[in-house]
Amino acid sequence: MTQTTKALLIGATALTAIASSAYAEGELNLYSSRHYDTDERLYSDFTDMTGITINRIEGNADELIARMEAEGANSPADILLTVDTSRLERAKEAGVLQSIDSAVLETRIPEALQDDDNQWFGFSQRARIIFYDKADVTDPPMSYVDLADPAYEGMVCHRSSTNVYSQTLVSAIIENHGTDAATSWAEGFVSNFARDPQGGDTDQLRGLVSGECDISISNTYYFARALRKDVDGLNAEALDNIGWVFPAQNAEGAHMNLSGGGVAANAPNRDNAIAFLEYLASDQAQEYFSAGNDEYPAVAGVGLSPSVAALGLFRPDAVDLSEVAKNVPEAQAIFNQVGWE
After folding, report:
1. Same CATH fold, 127-254+321-338 and 3-125+256-309?
2. For labelling, which of 168, 218, 314, 337 has a CA lying 20 to 30 Å from the CA of 128?
3. Phi, psi (5° rounding) for residue 325?
């Protein structure tokens, strides 16, 4: 039984209890696909500040969205938290989120990191950047476009096309460069694969250590986490041999993956839900996204943890992520066309 299945079974057992208390004063029913133990601090601090108890169901984002659809008007969910813009947009399209008015969120969260209809807001980010073996690569690619250069044939490791990080990266390339350019890029990129797409981002970094690949792409927080604490296969010696590039610094900037959430369409505790999202935009919560999970805050000017700051300064892509999310179906068509498994 997978961890996702376990979480959903636990959620199903808890659902009756949550539903019975859904209309209780001082409660918040949270559906979350963020699977980080460090988020416990976010929840406990919110409860300490407000007295609002958080009832939580965790699981795979797509399954949680499907559950909310099935529950319909009877859903006890107040908040959906998930990772990646494409999933947030999927929830919006499924009709399980609602638009809200919040001067706090409108002011604190940059416009590019929120839905056009205020149905979802981003609260933390990860830059998707290029990592490379310093011993084997003396002239690393400096942009996403460069990754399709034949000079890097047989050197690149990446995740599968079914992964949302792959989908939103190509969706951003479509938004920034157009469909034809994105298709040509994907053809060259796939030609440079050192192995069949596999594993998670940490596995792409481990591929550099094992020698399976010389170049990989990963979200920054996986590498920053290894700087902060022990991660299997990524000891201090291994990390010293890995270099990194924030791509496209003379063009669009580094692609950013978003973690965010929105108020459920049938939220029984709507005011509490809005209060929780506003709390996630506070300096206190924003600092903890960085300190607890090695992410970049969504709110400008919030301090970074040492592990994140160690990666250096860079210019992020300022593209509207709401628009990027709409390109996912087109990205999937490109995957099929170029044979990106």
Report:
1. yes
2. 337
3. -60, -30
